[in-house]
Amino acid sequence: MQKYNYLKIFLLILSFFLIACHKEKEIKSIVFLQGHGEHYEEEISYILDTLSFHFNIDMGNITGKSNELDNYEFVIISDPQKAFNEKEKYILDQYLMKGGSIIALLKGHRIDYQTLISNKKTIAAPLDLNLNDLFFTYNLRINPDLIRKNKTNNVSTWVYNLEINNPWNKTFINMNLSSSIDIVGKNEQIKKNILLQTNESSSRIELPTWIFMKEKDNSIHTTIPFSIGVHNKGIFTSHYKHRLVPDGVIQIGEKLIESKNAQVVLFSSGDLLLNTSPKENHHFFIQLLQNMMKEEK
């Protein structure tokens, strides 16, 4: 099985490399945003090392120029814990308007993991990153809830640790402590594609709530799948179409109010890319980038 996994990721990387070389000879760049308590480089070193074979990888803060993200193929927001300000949101928005690709791994909750481990319980409360209005403009919303599975036969599997079908093969993606995602709005110029959704009896728990290391079975079951990963692509309207340029922004060129062909991917778990996540999570992410690069800009 281990040899199969290594062969699989090798083939993914090889095809990824061939696509990148076919599109352009220059090496493209990816930035993992910092400054809001995102994952440290050491926590996601496996995916960073893998991507660095074929991309320039930056870890950096948004500073103030409206065009500072323009040269990146992907802008990745990986599990922030602190709120974004309007200057940062504006620069993200203008990057998208120019045909950029944003991938966000966001949680809808705040949990003290040390308390959970030591006391076997803790409170899960809503997490406000000041991004809800921005992603709502892009027809996406993370809800302040937690999705749990019910009646698991595996006593070692935590009810908040979801196994989700990989949309491209017969493997599973591990999504830990996920919230539900709603597709909102009626922008017909945006194509909405659900990447990951619950595939088992599950329930939605509104926050705030107590969570326990050993949860009892929940009697409230649902057959409605919950989306926890969505890919929107097409022509987006700027969140700042009817808003002033925020203070602190150094505007380069004119403010854009409608995008070129652009892409937004939203996941509702911040743990997707951790080194401790199953390797299938990393395979899935590489395949996602490969598929997004195939999309016509």
Helix content range: 10-25%
* E-strand count: 16
The structural class is: alpha/beta
The radius of gyration computed from the alpha-carbon positions, rounded to a whole number of angstroms, is 19 Å
Spell the H/E element sequence: HEHEEHEEHEHEEEEEEEEEEH
Q: In the CATH hierarchy, what is the class of the domain at 2-20 and 28-108 and 130-145 and 180-200 and 225-294?
A: Alpha Beta
Question: Which parts are unreliable, with pLDDT below 50 for 5 consecutive residues or more?
Answer: none
Spatial arrangement of strands, main beta sheet: 2-1-3-4-16-15-12
User: Describe the biggest sheet?
Assistant: 7 strands, mixed
What would the principal axes of the Cα set say about the shape?
Answer: globular
- Under the CATH scheme, the architecture of the domain at 2-20 and 28-108 and 130-145 and 180-200 and 225-294 is 3-Layer(aba) Sandwich
Strand content: 25-35%
Question: Whole-Å distance between the termini?
Answer: 37 Å
Mean pLDDT across all amino acids:
89
Helix count equals 6
CATH fold name of the domain at 2-20 and 28-108 and 130-145 and 180-200 and 225-294: Rossmann fold
Describe the 3D structure:
- By secondary structure, this protein is of the alpha/beta class.
- The protein has a domain at 2-20 and 28-108 and 130-145 and 180-200 and 225-294: Rossmann fold, CATH 3.40.50.
- It has six helices and 16 strands.
- The chain has helices spanning 2-23, 45-51, 86-97, 113-119, 132-137, 279-294; strands spanning 28-33, 55-60, 74-78, 101-105, 109-110, 121-126, 140-142, 145-149, 161-165, 172-176, 181-183, 190-197, 202-206, 209-212, 227-237, 258-267.
- The strands form five sheets. A seven-stranded mixed sheet has the order 2-1-3-4-16-15-12. A three-stranded antiparallel sheet has the order 5-6-14. The protein has a two-stranded antiparallel sheet with strand order 7-11.
- α1 packs parallel to α6.
- The longest helix has 22 residues, at 2-23.
- The radius of gyration is 19 Å and the shape is globular.
- The relative contact order is 0.19.
- The mean pLDDT is 89.
